[in-house]
Amino acid sequence: MSARAGVPYDIVLFDVDGTLLDSNGAHAAAWAEALRAHQIDAPVVEVRRLVGMGGDKLLPAIAGIAADSDVGRAVTQRKKEIFAELLPALHATRGARWLVEFLAAGGVPIAIATSADAEETRALLRQAGVDDLIPVRASKDDAGGSKPEPDIVRAALEKAGGGFAAPVLVGDTPYDTEAASRAGIRSIALRCGGFWADHDLAGAIELHDDPSGLLRSWRESDRHAESEEVGSKRT
């Protein structure tokens, strides 16, 4: 029985940070430190609630800085340097590779839709251990606006070939669910990104603890479908 039997979607888009890699805390710490280096005080907890947006949204929101200003570019560059130092110590979220392997083995199309840039996306996927499984990727380099704008979601669908009747985005923040909604598709939320309460993720049609929880749900649906198929053949 293929994965398609248990997965009611014809393509699954994945966010990366907080979804496939436990990296949201590191992003928040890196932003806060980079801002302090430019004499801007931004408590980590305040930065943390904005992680999931692109830097073009985060910097104006936390510090009133335009990302394309001289200061904005300098802060962003320093943040990248700090995060790169933290990245080797980060781990995949529970079941990340198992979930992606399940979809790939079942022939379900998969694509990345992330607010990270293309270079960072490659590094994140390598650290999450799924770089070899997801060749179709849309990053902020492919879109006019980062999440919660719908541009990256639409770019991912287009890169994957388009024409999908039942796409879904798997993410971990309200910015993912909003981006999916604004792109006209459904979303599934994971709690493993931390920080957000369930009611913050209410825009999603399903809520699971982590990729392993979502995988378990789809496998159970797969087994149920297989059982019904066997039963129908006997009658």
What does this entry look like structurally?
The protein has 235 residues and is of the alpha/beta class. Helices cover 46% and strands 10% of the residues. It has 9 helices and 6 strands. α8 links the parallel β4 and β5. α1 (24-36) packs across α4 (70-86) and α5 packs parallel to α9 (211-234). The chain is globular and about 55 Å long. The mean pLDDT is 93.
Number of helices: 9
Order of helices and strands: EHHHHHEHEHEHEEH
Poorly predicted tracts of residues: none
Report the strand count.
Answer: 6
Strand order in space, largest sheet? 3-2-1-4-5-6
The CATH architecture category of the largest domain equals 3-Layer(aba) Sandwich
Oligomer: single chain
The fold-level CATH name of the largest domain is Rossmann fold
Question: What would the keywords be for this entry?
Answer:
Rossmann fold; 6 strands; alpha/beta; DNA polymerase, domain 1; 2 domains; 235 residues; 6-stranded parallel β-sheet; single chain; globular
Blueprint of the fold:
Elements: E1 11-14, H1 24-36, H2 44-48, H3 55-63, H4 70-86, H5 96-105, E2 110-113, H6 118-128, E3 137-138, H7 151-159, E4 167-171, H8 174-182, E5 186-190, E6 206-208, H9 211-234
Parallel strand pairs: 1-2, 1-4, 2-3, 4-5, 5-6
Helix pairs in contact: 1-4, 5-9
Short description:
This protein is α/β, with parallel strands linked by helices and 235 residues long. It has nine helices and six strands; from the N terminus they run βαααααβαβαβαββα.
